[in-house]
Specification:
The complex is a heterotrimer of chains A (about 400), B (about 170) and C (about 160). Chain A contains 16 helices and 8 strands. In chain A, about 45% of the residues lie in helices and about 15% in strands. Chain A has a single domain (about 65-305, about 330-405), classed as Cytochrome-c3 Hydrogenase, chain B (Orthogonal Bundle). In chain A, helix 4 runs antiparallel to helix 15 (about 390-400). Chain A is globular and about 80 Å long. Chain B has about 170 residues and is an alpha/beta fold. Chain B has helices at about 10-30, 45-50, 85-95, 105-110, 140-155, and strands at about 35-40, 75-80, 100-105, 130-135. A 4-stranded parallel beta sheet of chain B has the order 1-2-3-4. Chain B is globular, with a radius of gyration of 17 Å. The mean pLDDT of chain B is about 90. Chain C has a domain at about 5-95: Beta Polymerase, domain 2. Chain C is about 20% helix and about 25% strand. Chain C has 3 helices and 7 strands, in the order H-E-E-H-E-E-E-E-H-E. In chain C, strands 1-2-5-4-3 form a 5-stranded mixed beta sheet. In chain C, strand 3 and strand 4 form a beta hairpin. Classes of the chains: A alpha+beta (about 400), B alpha/beta (about 170), C alpha/beta (about 160). Chains in contact: A-B, A-C, B-C. Chains A and C meet through helix 1, strand 6, strand 7, strand 8 and helix 14 of A and strand 3, strand 4 and helix 3 of C.
Chain lengths: ~400, ~170, ~160
């Protein structure tokens, strides 16, 4: 019996009836805690077993690309932030890197090291969020509270630097918004020490926990060839055993000078994805400790009139600086005509920006190659054949971020 | 809105009982809010932060989320509402039973934020009535707690008809 | 800077396709739409470009071949990227689908179809993915006004 409702159905499902008697169609989402509020999964169930799955995304499509076509290269940085909002700084830096490649700008050494440090810091925040959410969905409230506590320290710390807790808008073309305040690095050291203590407790709670192993081992298994065919990158691809990491394969920023490992999994199941993320966070902490030692002095912003705002005293006293400032704000930094694709290793995988410019301060086209979107295309491979309850840990381990998936 | 009734409409005893009943029911309802976290975007990060240490909505009785609209009374729309998601929001709102309150959490839920394009709805109050708007992109956890406290004051002050439309 | 595999690709493709150039470390190959599927098959099987990164399009209104469909591939063995570009007309914006070769092509082609109206011949599923049923038009085309909303739920008065 259908109950009339005032709201229309925004999607067309791939299947509306079961293939045989006994197959039940169930709608999961989009307003569902397991699917992070923006993914709809229509599952054909045989008892508890998922036979077929139809994944629908787009419930958070906010028109990012269209919006960016009417803002200057600088003005759209807040939009870029809100792609993978768990690790806002990495989006900023990947985008700024793409524009800097297009404009042929080389950033200062201090900026390079600082961007690397903050990228790894953001990676820690993202992995903390992913693991906390997926553990909480399995019922491990304690682990969630521990991890979110550390994440809160990270947020407050980044707020001391950038002014915001979650969406920072800190990257600038040719540099960063501001330099580190006093005492920031010593607080960073305290947070990393506290992190290590808490992560030790999470390892103790989860790693050999019978319930956790039963729920995640051999669930959501995918092989390396399948993963590459379906476009998986990042921790999911690494959990299958393939050591593909842009930080090692095509080093950018200061990664070529750092000593770190790329953790890989064995099976390609949920447990491996959890463990790869835990180990990646440890590697990030190791990298941050190296970067604190290696951080050089010097200016943050490159001394280039095409992108860097001049000093305020000069703007108020010299006419050239005034006009330069005015042009940069009103028209935007003038990029040459051309196109570029630049990718960074985001916590979810390869985050790429494809920019097309026809000259001028406004992009002609700005496309984001988002890892979450491509992963949603391959999600059915991880869900089909397993139980309905297995969808919870599998979806949590894929770390679908709506802002990045739907853009 | 609280309707204004003529002074002679009710006896003083009834008014006294009615006020006391409203205070009691208001106290009970405001300290046992069950939020339905209609979570979509970046504000979810601050929602997670405000639900856990050190901010903790559990102190206000508003921590336990209920993921079924039938079992919740505070609809927290956390994040941007797009046109594709609007029917879902309307359906969830309609499925909630009275009394229910709606919190527009964040700039996007309040007014569309800075997404002024074909995809985003310019504020959820175009679709459903809103009781409290929380500004911020995303709002700091203290702002959210302030909003919950303001909503609790509002619940405490309002009339709660539990028997019929007069008492 | 040019990777050795780029030279090999260029030699092998020289008889078949049009232009090559390097763009910030990525080899760019401009093809005719009919040569697309074969080229991609060869790139995957002979040269190891096994990861399809991205499918998107660029709208050049006013040009005879209005839409430029752009593909990005990555080789997990050579660790370099290749960009394939092809042009189609507005009246018949059809290219071959890469779904037989790459599973990940499905969602990406659906998005390109949603946003630009490019039809992918051979993709069985071209339902809207980011937009919703009943949305008229293709928003990323330059002639679609940015603020033209098509609400599904009528607004409250």
């Amino acid at each position: 019996m259908t109950v009339p409702t005032t709201s229309p159905n925004p999607i067309r499902p791939a299947f509306a009836q079961g293939e045989h008697d006994g197959e039940v169609i169930v709608n999961i989402g989009p307003s569902h805690p397991a699917t992070h509020g923006t993914i709809q999964v229509i599952a054909a169930l045989d008892g508890e077993r998922i036979n077929r799955v139809d994944v629908h995304c787009g419930y958070l499509h906010r028109g990012f690309e269209k919006e960016c076509e009417s803002h200057t290269w600088h003005n759209l940085i807040p939009y870029v932030d809100r792609l993978n909002y768990c690790s806002g700084l990495i989006n900023d830096f990947a985008y700024c890197d793409a524009v800097e490649k297009l404009m042929d700008i080389e950033i200062t050494p201090r900026c390079r090291y600082l961007r690397t440090l903050l990228s790894e810091y953001s990676r820690i925040a993202d992995h903390l969020t992913c693991i906390a959410a997926s553990l909480m969905e399995l019922g491990a409230m304690t682990a969630f509270l521990y991890l979110v506590m550390i994440r809160d320290y990270v947020y407050e710390h980044l707020a001391a630097l950038t002014g915001a807790r979650v969406t920072y808008t800190y990257g600038r073309i040719g540099g960063l918004a501001r330099d580190l305040p006093d005492g920031w690095l010593s607080r960073l050291d305290e947070i990393l020490t506290q992190y290590e203590e808490f992560i030790g407790r999470i390892h103790g709670l989860m790693d050999r926990n019978r319930i956790f192993i039963d729920r995640t081992r051999n669930i959501g298994v995918i092989s390396s060839t399948d993963a590459v065919n379906w476009g998986f990158t990042g921790p999911i691809l690494r959990s299958t055993g393939l050591a593909c990491d842009l930080r090692k394969d095509a080093p950018y920023l200061a990664y070529a000078e750092l000593d770190f490992d790329v953790p890989v999994g064995i099976n390609g199941d949920n447990y491996d994805r959890y463990y790869v993320r835990m180990r990646e966070m440890d590697e990030s902490v190791y990298m941050i400790r190296q970067l604190i030692e290696m951080l050089p002095g010097g200016p943050i912003n490159v001394d280039d009139r095409r992108c860097t705002l001049p000093e305020k005293e000069l703007v108020y006293t010299e006419i050239e600086s005034l006009i330069n400032h005015f042009k940069l704000i009103m028209d935007g930094p003038a990029a040459p005509a051309g196109e570029v694709y630049a990718a960074h290793e985001a916590p979810n995988g390869e985050l790429g920006f494809y920019l097309v410019s026809t000259g001028g301060g406004i992009p002609y086209k700005l496309h984001v190659r988002s890892p979450s979107f491509v992963h949603m295309g391959g999600l059915h491979r991880l869900l089909e054949g397993y139980q309905l309850a297995d969808m919870i840990p599998t979806f949590g381990s894929v770390n679908m971020i709506g802002g990045e998936c739907d853009r | 809105m609280i309707p204004i009734q003529a002074p002679s409409a009710r006896s003083p005893a009834f008014e006294y009982l009615s006020t006391k009943k409203d205070e009691l029911v208001g106290w009970a309802r405001k300290f046992s809010l069950f939020p339905y976290p209609f979570v979509t975007a970046c504000c979810a990060m601050e929602f997670m932060s405000v639900s856990s240490t050190p901010y903790d909505t559990d102190r206000f009785g508003a921590a336990l989320p209920r993921f079924s609209p039938r079992q919740s009374d505070l609809l927290m729309v956390v994040g941007t509402l797009t046109h594709k998601q609007a029917p879902i929001l309307l359906k969830v709102y309609e499925q909630m039973c009275e009394p229910k309150w709606v919190m527009a959490f964040g700039a996007c839920a309040t007014s569309g934020g800075f997404y002024q394009n074909y995809a985003a709805v310019a504020g959820i109050d175009k679709i459903i009535p809103v009781d409290i708007y929380v500004p911020g992109c995303p709002p700091r956890p203290e702002t959210v707690i302030d909003a919950i406290m303001m909503l609790q004051d509002r619940i405490a002050r309002s009339q709660h008809f539990i028997v019929n439309d007069k008492f | 800077m040019s990777a050795p595999v780029f030279d090999v690709v260029q030699q092998q493709f020289a008889t078949v396709t049009g232009e090559f150039h390097l763009s910030h470390g990525t080899l760019v190959i401009v093809l005719h739409p009919t040569a697309l599927l074969d080229a991609v098959r060869r790139l995957r099987s002979e040269f190891g470009f096994d990861l399809l990164l991205d499918v998107t399009a660029v709208d050049w209104p006013g040009q005879a071949l209005r839409f430029e469909v752009v593909y990005h591939f990555y080789s997990t063995t050579h660790r370099v990227r290749v960009r394939l570009k092809t042009r189609v007309r507005e009246a018949d914006p059809t290219v071959d689908s890469l779904v037989p070769l790459f599973g990940s092509a499905n969602f990406m082609e659906r998005e390109c179809h949603d946003m630009y109206g490019i039809v992918f011949r051979g993709n069985p599923d071209q339902r809207p993915i980011l937009l919703y049923e009943g949305f008229a038009g293709h928003p990323l085309r330059k002639d679609y006004p940015k603020q033209q909303e098509q609400p599904l739920v009528p607004y409250r008065t």
